[in-house]
Amino acid sequence: MELSYRKEGKVAVLVFGSAQSSFMQRTLDGVPRKVLNFSVQVFIPDAPDAQYGAAVRAGLAHALLQKYDYVIKLDGDGRHDPQLVSTIIKILARGGVGLVTTSRYLRKSDRHAQPQVREELEDSMLSAAVNRVLKTDFTDVTSNYFGISSELLQQLSLTTEGEGLELELILKAALAHKANVLEIPHPLISNTHAYDKARLETHISVLTDTLKNLNRSLS
């Protein structure tokens, strides 16, 4: 998929989390409001009754409706560095790359905390499964911090309701639309969140369902 170079435009940044938390405020303060000749608008999607994936999909759909050139999604719980927004915009603006994901496990990724051993192992397993399908070398397909071109986003039909939307996003962008997906380093900042025992099973379900649907549509 050919993606155009842009000199100027507007970017939507979707920040998920509690609007009242101190982490959220620091995240909002850290997001740049202008990068190159791109204006940046920050949104805190209000979806209290929606599951995670559904809420993200609603935010992405709103950004498309408002004709933003790029959409960046991150969490405001202290685990995502908002200053990376600038890097993501610059990469997308060059053209050629449709989706930018972030990794806590690349060699260049700083570690300000130690990862939960079980979660890191699960992330490694999921990344290995994706790499086997795509013949890539991703190290982190569950960071939940990404930026995407609206040109690519409008071609994707996303269906994930809960966790695992980024996994579906990567697979559909690379497999169905042959888009270039670039993974960049992101520091491992915190591991204080509670471990979700159903996390691996949920992501495996998204992986298998997405591949089945893609095989059906591409055959």
Question: What's the structural blueprint in terms of helices and strands?
Answer:
Blueprint: E1 9-16, H1 22-30, E2 34-35, E3 38-43, H2 52-65, E4 70-75, H3 84-93, E5 97-103, H4 117-134, E6 146-149, H5 150-153, H6 165-176, E7 180-185, H7 199-218
Parallel strand pairs: 1-3, 1-4, 5-7
Antiparallel strand pairs: 2-3, 4-6, 5-6
Helix pairs in contact: 4-7, 6-7
Structure description:
The structure is a single chain. The protein is α/β, with parallel strands linked by helices and 219 residues long. It has a single domain, classed as Spore Coat Polysaccharide Biosynthesis Protein SpsA, Chain A, CATH 3.90.550. It is 40% helix and 18% strand. The chain contains 7 helices and 7 strands, in the order E-H-E-E-H-E-H-E-H-E-H-H-E-H. It has helices spanning 22-30, 52-65, 84-93, 117-134, 150-153, 165-176, 199-218; strands spanning 9-16, 34-35, 38-43, 70-75, 97-103, 146-149, 180-185. A 7-stranded mixed β-sheet has the order 2-3-1-4-6-5-7, sandwiched between helices. A hairpin with a 2-residue loop joins strand 2 and strand 3 (38-43). Helix 4 (117-134) packs parallel to helix 7 and helix 6 (165-176) runs parallel beside helix 7 (199-218). The longest helix has 20 residues, at 199-218. The protein is globular and about 40 Å long. The protein starts with 8 loop residues before the first strand and ends with a helix. The relative contact order is 0.18.
How do you describe this structure in short?
With 219 residues, this protein is α/β, with parallel strands linked by helices.
